[in-house]
Design brief:
Layout lengths: L8 H10 L3 E4 L3 E4 L5 E12 L2 E8 L4 E10 L2 E7 L6 H13 L5 H16 L6 E3 L5
Parallel strand pairs: 2-7
Antiparallel strand pairs: 1-3, 2-3, 3-4, 4-5, 5-6
């Protein structure tokens, strides 16, 4: 007997392939908060399924990776929605699987980007960033 609450990796792979996920961008940029301050969070990729936009995040302090939904209003990012709510196991698994298969969390790529960005910063060049706007 199988437990219906467990997620089968073969099923996730199949669903990921059939989900018609489109990569929007896999350029790394800094997440800038609503106060205009750069954060340690890097947006390492963005993808879309139907009308839902997702982001692959990497916390440069903790070295942890996350997949979240981007919530936009008038084209501006308003906030991130964690994929840890009820009945979201499959959504989280499929999006996370997609980002992992696309190798967006490649530590060498991220480390090199951070190193290059620090060198550019020393010369007065700002890193590319995406700013979140404050909720109304």
């Amino acid at each position: 007997m199988t437990d219906d609450t467990q997620v089968d990796s073969k099923q996730i792979d199949t669903t990921t392939k059939q989900a018609n996920i489109k990569m929007l961008d896999n350029s790394i940029c800094v997440f800038v908060n609503s106060h205009g301050q750069a954060t340690p969070i890097l947006i390492v990729a963005r993808a879309k399924v139907d009308d839902i936009e997702y982001a692959a995040l990497f916390d440069s302090t903790t070295k942890k990776a996350y997949a979240v939904e981007l919530i936009r209003e008038n084209g501006q990012i308003k906030y991130f929605r964690d994929l840890d709510g009820p009945n979201q196991d499959e959504e989280w698994a499929v999006i996370s699987n997609y980002f992992l298969k696309e190798k967006v969390y490649d530590k060498n790529k991220i480390s090199m980007w951070i190193w290059n960005t620090m060198k550019l910063h020393q010369r007065g060049v700002k890193a590319p960033g995406i700013r979140i706007t404050r909720k109304s």
